[in-house]
Design a protein that fits this description.
The complex is a heterodimer. In chain A, 48% of the residues lie in helices and 18% in strands. Chain A is of the alpha/beta class. Chain A has a five-stranded mixed β-sheet, sandwiched between helices. Chain B has a five-stranded antiparallel β-sheet with strand order 1-2-3-5-4, covered by helices on one side. The chains are: A alpha/beta, B alpha+beta.
Chain lengths: 118, 131
Amino acid sequence: MRIPILKLHDCLLISIQWELDDQTALQFQEDLLRKIHETSARGVVIDLTSIDFIDSFIAKVLGDVISMSKLMGAKVVITGIQPAVAITLIELGIRLEDVLTALDLEKGLEKLRRELED
Amino acid sequence: MDSCVKITNEWDIVAARQLGRNVAKDLGFGTVDQARITTAISELARNIYLYAGQGQVCIEKTENAGKVGLIILSEDQGPGIQDLRKAMEDGFSTSGGLGAGLPGVKRLVDEFAIDSTPGEGTLIKAIKWLR
């Protein structure tokens, strides 16, 4: 299954709605970079509201795709990280540092807008 | 309600953590502990897949002095861990950082025991108690 990537003006919106297996996560990485290239998107919001756990593999794929997007000139904001996900990620020892985050999609889009204006 | 998942490929990692989450939910664990249990199982199953190639993860219910807990047993006949003390240090990895490592898993659970013999395999027992 592929994760849909929506275009909104110069931004891309992704809402991850189901548990990510390795292949889906890696496919998403490729799909997002291709879409950034095709659409010349400057910003990306990845919403994780429906995700109830993140292991080290998914965290690595997410962290990597954020760095890769940055290389292509697009800023990424992660939104909707659930309390249980934040707690387990830190306990596990994973720090997604230098990653832009916001509480929800709305605040994420506002944050992205401000980042792109700077 | 003992149940095991054989780990031989990436999809088995998903099956193992789904089993663990279902059992955790049935036992009455809250969402944060469900996430801890699911994540711990995912890391242990991934270690089997990465280092041993195959093995199994079993989820069991346990009771002790009126307390209910969930046991995660991770077992493989892989190469074993050469230096256990090093493997339990934060940041130590022989996979190039693909997994969070055993110290991370240990922090997610209440009890953690590991037995590993080089050339024979690794057995890990982790317990999360219902609060």
